[in-house]
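One such shown below:

_____
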Amino acid sequence: MTREFTNGHRIDASQGGVVRRFRAGRATVRAMAVALCLALIFACLPAWAGSSRYTKDKGVPAAAPAASSVSAPAPKAAAKASGEEPAPSFAKAAGGLALGSTTLRSPADFQECVRVALSQSPLLTKSSIEIESRRLDVGDAYSQYIPTIIMSTTFYLRLPEYKNTAAPTAWSSVMQNASSNPTQNLSNSISAANAVYSGNSNNRNRKTYDLNFSTGAWNPLLTAFEVQAKKEMVNIAVLSHLKVIDEGLKRLGTTFLQLGMVEKMLKLSKEREDLAVKNLEYVKTKAGLGQGAQLDVRIAETRINMAKAEAEKMRTTRSVLQDEMKFIMGIPFVQKINLDLTNAPGQVLEDFNPASVTDERLRKHSFKLRIHDYELSLQRKNIALSYIHFLPTFSFGFTSVSTLNNTSYKEDTSALPFMYPNLSFNFPFDWWTKSRDVSRQYKKLAQKNVEGRNLEFTLMSEFQQALAKLRSANSDVKFANSTMELQKLTTQQAQFRFESGQAEYDAIVKAMADYLDSRQTLITKEYQRDVDMLEVRSISGDFQDRYINATVMENI
């Protein structure tokens, strides 16, 4: 079969079929190569997505930040004399447990309250989630070691037509080289026809798209510093979480001390009420004998009402403090709790001695100073990072020849690979701006050093102020105790005078009321002293050593 052209020459159709099959086969090979590249990219996506949710030097999941950052207290032997098993030495993240999922053993002493609070306190939820977020940032920083592949393509709805310059030249050559040899003339005509067909085929078989695979600006050295900075942020988040735990436990201890004081006040209110009842009986008897007025009876009844009102106020305060304890421990408010408030100051303060606190111990246990050390390390990394910005960044990729390019290439360039690798370097010459950034980072480092000295001075000042308040509270307790002893002796003197007939029963009632008032003042002063002692213990770090395993920081 032959195909006839407008110029009267003929060409074998089998030759055109071969050309078309060659073009179609080459397009098929290119399409297969594109599909192979896309398959490799999508195969690498799971490795990029799960780059790591763990830190590089700690092989633990990020979902349990508080599991190793706190340790439950070991119960005292005296408190567990009833035969109960000691509390397990663990504490889970506050965000990982439902409210009230940890059972509070009754009656619960302070150690049991600490165990439950470390397991499920809502106060620890926000800071523990912050640790998880920072660890995710570390995983994201590690993923930056793998450059991001960006595929861009351009589809053309209409392409410009290439001008076929080979066809006129070929026909002109045929006409000029015509000879008497028919075979030679036929061969020249076939070649000219092929040129015409090839030009038209190039316009028909051109690709309607361009492909480009490239990476963004990539600097592995910059990524290494980013990973280290994110790890420092994790350590800061963990220290902040430990600080929140320390403050939560101090709040728990303060509330426990308040409950102990309220229990003493309730017993004192009961004694006031009993004294008022005895006084009412005496006044009524005296009025019945005609030696007293009805107004004295009403005054005695009012004192009973006052004692009952005071007891009711104390019970309301106890209910509010119990709700506070439930909130700190993460227990539902509808659940009843039974607390062992026997010797509450001894349970909370234990055998702490402020005289054993040293300056080195204060610096070692200060969360603010430890966080500042990590911030100082971050600032040093920022200085190194400002120097790294002077280095060039580079990117690499694969690019196809644009279909709009009408430049003639060698025929073998159209075979595989049809995409061509390239490497780009970005070297901005903004050295003046970057040198000013280096100076700025050094200034910030100097500021951090000054802040560190101020924090250390503030820590020592806070500790000295806490010690001064404790000494003042001890003096108040001694004075209140002396006053109580004096009122006790006065009560005994009134009792002796009443028994000897030298005084009326009213003198005993008055002396006893003054004695109860002095006991109430002593209870208040003792509570204030215990709170000040708890503050000193918290600042010194003894409280966190007792309940928080801060050495876990070395394993993060």
In short: The radius of gyration is 45 Å. The first helix runs from residue 13 to 49.
